[in-house]
Amino acid sequence: RISLGLGYLKMGNTQQAKLNLEKAKRFAPNLTQVHTAFAHYYDTVAEPALAIKSYEKALSLDSQDADTLNNYGVFLCRHAKYTAAEQQMLKAIAIPSYILVAQSYENLALCQLQARQFTKAQIYLEKAIDHSPNRASSLLQMMRLQYAKSDYKLAQTYLGRYEKSTRRFSANA
Are 110 and 76 in contact (CB under 8 A)? Predict the structure, then answer.
């Protein structure tokens, strides 16, 4: 029911999305993923207070759910709560079994770019690349950051790595 609800949400059918999420909640009211899915639903329908409530409920059920921590961090960043966002994503990264570490570091970097904290953004991009050396999106963001800092030689290095990992040559890059 969660997958079905999120599928409907992705298609823009919010009524069917909520209906299926409500059914999932009835079947498993203490399942963290149900409340995380509701948070995504509420974020999509522009109800940030309800999204926060859902994230907090999910984390009250399992404070070590790395996916929820990361998603909550991304949500907080989109709402310009940069310090709280960073805390949530770092909590996710600190969980030993979490496998999407590179993605979370990249999320942190993008959040820091939004907050205009360029030094922190570079540190987090470096960590993302350390964890996944061929992660194209991290390489591209690092190239853009170095270009913006006028370090054209380093930007060229990251461009080469990006093109090697994607085997694409794009005007954007």
Answer: no
Structure tokens at 94: 């600190």
CA angle 43-40-9, nearest 5°? Answer: 100
What b/e sequence results for 55-75 when a residue is b if at least 16 CB atoms lie within 10 Å of its CB, and e otherwise? Answer: bebbbebbeebbbbbbbbbbb
Rounded-to-integer distance, Cα 45 and Cα 147, Å:
36
pTM, rounded to two decimals: 0.88
Region 50-65: mean pLDDT is 96
Percent helix / strand / coil, the chain, rounded to 5: 75, 0, 25
52 Cβ partners below 8 Å, 6+ apart?
Answer: 39, 75
Identify the residue whose tokens are 């298609």: 11
Tens-digit pLDDT profile for residues 113-160: 999 999 999 999 999 999 999 999 999 999 999 999 999 999 999 999
At position 120, the amino acid (one-letter code) is: K
Structure tokens at 159: 């461009």
* Among candidate residues 95, 96, 100, 109, the one with its CA nearest the CA of residue 139: 109
DSSP codes of every residue in 80-125 = T-HHHHHHHHHHHHHSTT---HHHHHHHHHHHHHHTT-HHHHHHHH
How many CB atoms are located within 10 Å of the residue 78 CB?
13
